[in-house]
Amino acid sequence: MGLFILRRLGVMILTALCLTYIVFTLTNLYPNLEKLAKTQGNFRMSDEAVTSWLDKRGYLQSTPKKYGEWLGVLPSKQFIDDEGKGYGRCTALADDPTQAPRFCGVLQGYWGQSTVFKDAVSKIIGIRLGLTGWLMLTVMCVMVPGALIIGVLAGMREGSKLDRTLSTISITSTATPEYVSGVIFIAIFASSAVGLKWFKGTATSAMDDITFANFTLPVLTIALYGMGYIARMTRASMTEVMTAQYIRTARLKGVSFANIVLKHALRNALIAPFTVIMLQIPWLLNGVVIVETLFNYKGFGWTLVQAASNNDIELLLGVSVVSVIVVLTTQLISDIGYVYLNPRIRIS
Amino acid sequence: MTHQTFTGKPMHPAAKMFAEECKAGEMDRREFMTRATALGLTTAGAYGLLGMASPAQAADMAMDGGTLRMQCEVRAHKDPRTYDWTQMAAVTSGTLEYLVEYSSDGSFTPMLLSGWEVNDDASQYTLMVRQGITWNNGEDFTADDVARNIARWCDKGAEGNSMAGRMASLIDEASGQASEGAITVDGNNVILKLNSSDITIIPGMADYPAAIVHSSYDADGDISALVGTGPMKVETLEVGVKAVLTKTDHPWWGNANDAYAGGGNRLDRIEFIDYGTDPAAWVAAAEAEEVDCFWETVGDFVDVMDGLGWVKSEVATGATIVVRPNQLAEVDGKTPYADKRVRQAISMAVDNAVCLELGYASRGVPADNCHAGPVHPEYDASVGRLPYDPAKAMALLEEAGMADFEFEIFSIDDDWRKNTTDAVAAQMRDAGMKVKRTIIPGSTFWNDWTKYSFSSTNWNHRPLATQIWGLAYRSGEAWNEFGWANAEFDALLAEANAIADADARRKVAGKLQAIIVEEGVTVQPYWRSLYRHANEKVTGTDMHIAYLPQTYKWALKG
Lengths: 348, 558
Fold this sequence. Notes:
Structural class of chain A: mainly alpha
Radius of gyration of chain B: 23 Å
Strand order of the largest sheet of chain A: 1-2
Oligomer: heterodimer
Shape of chain A: elongated
Number of helices of chain A: 14
Shape of chain B: globular
Number of strands of chain A: 4
Strand content of chain B: 15-25%
Helix content of chain B: 25-40%
Structural class of chain B: alpha+beta
């Protein structure tokens, strides 16, 4: 098991390296750098001014060299002009540019500076990830129990009226994308158009203070979409278990239906949904992009959109690394959890 | 007895002449107020010349304290003289104040100045610095501070400094700085000696990038430690999210002074909250009672907000949109818009009234493609536009050998700017041209706004047409998005800027309008009325004709 986890960690680091290198290469294409120079400097800079702006800040070195600087394995290029003002990634770390450290990459714990938000990347990602974390946690709390209950109820008697009703509901909810359900929810529950106004159609105030009124609609929008999917998976797993030999034996021995479902079927039926639930976490991380934009909740998804649309190189790299870690960690947990839940794999 | 001029000295001879014109109906009241106060008359004095009483300010219901939350884009702070968004000025306007204020009635009021005088040919200005004002670090605000700020504005070498365009008559072309001896301090006064007559200096000082900064100002410094003359401080500024202004114990000079009946800067806290560019999200915020006031209500949302019972404030302006080709832009290695016939064809294919109806729900008046209109004193209504004639437009395009050319028109992804650009594109297609539309998100559109080959840009209202021409149409200016250079135009503009009398100036302005129209520089389809909605709790947040923030007027009702 230890070796398995180590191997997985190795894969994680390798994937993070490959992905960040790809993102790095794309954001460092010359037209993107030119755009960056013009937004940061002056929109009417001449081509020579753009070149000198980029050169001063070390953007014109080869991509592997710059990537090495970002990682912190190669010394950062520094340029100090006649007035003693320093340029380069490390200069922001010291008041006097000549005193700035030579290495300042991710390995040294420095994630760089966001060009759009004028702040440290680590700080921005910390705040935004925290906000999205709350959203995801609430969504999981609503989605997982709801989906499991619906799935188990539907799957315990395949083909019954209850099964057909619940299946229809879960297929409908999973077939309705967030940008449709979100708008419908806002119109019905938050606007004067219908007049219910039970909840708020924006979650901006939830960034400071989460309340029932301002957080319900975004949570419901994401949860309903995921709920249908997990419920379908649970139902499939449940129906399969319910037709197994040992369940029939139990029924023949006269065990009550409630006992069969709760004591014998449920545990075995929940193995497959566990994997699906773990895989929902990375999906949530990116799936919240739409909901965060719709409800103006400025979390991780919103940051990703802003970073990508403004070619904010270092912020985008930070976001990529976090995404890789979240995706591969949840996969690791789901694999380990699967081993513990399923005795057949554990024993072999 | 109220003085007619700020200084109590005799009024400028031209002011009386303007009053006669206004009474005779040759000039409307807004134009009169603009010109008379720019010549050193007080607002009360100017109204007095017309035989009218100055309107009372409606601040009676305001109370002290409280928090006002405004829906507003929150942008990164940069050096005020390089501001390109009025929202940037809103965040700092409680701290960094202005020398002169422009009001929606067209008048100019001294703020950090106590008044000014102009000589007869508008080539020398004496600015009187208001006494008793201190910076929030305790230092006195002096004439040296004013002189230093004006010199800063004149620095053409500073990247993106748009104030240099407004202060052009003070600048020595060779050095790119203020001319030797142009700005001198004489006791409490600052004397400006211009290189040529210029009537736009005072209006230029009232514009939003003209915020007054302290000698220690550093654009990259901590914004919460910003030194200014105002009582507010920028507590936090999170780009794209939120900016919070809180009141400090630095008293506001306006409250210690009789200049502002009823006082100002009453709020303890102002929050600017960013809800993105989609107005539907703003409405959701209003319905959720998360904001008290919008920055601006646009398009169909004016009716939506009326329906919600919010209070509308409306002002007719010289704010507009230009849908223009860039004459220097290269498309596939050619410069298609360098050919005058192509540009003329574009403007002849477009009916401006249709753009107004489809793009802005008819909330404004059609314009004549020359970026001068009825709100500008020097506007010559007889010039007119190139006639709307789609058939002739297509013929011109064929003559230029460009009939098969595919036009690509860029616009920002929003409501009215996108729709207006779509209306232009649709009419060009109706005329038989090939048009492709490209929509760019708001976060990236402005990165390169002057460089698009063919795109739309919104322009704020400015008091005089010559100001806009000086900023955007003069050859080589930072905001000349048309890529247009015309020596005759530049010479005539310099001539117009030396004529204090608007009637005499109109003759030159007419020629300038004609050149812009004839060259087909741009499609400038209509003038917008501006709207802002606020809930019942707030007062003093009226929409401003030029989007000037004037946060000191905002308050909650008691």
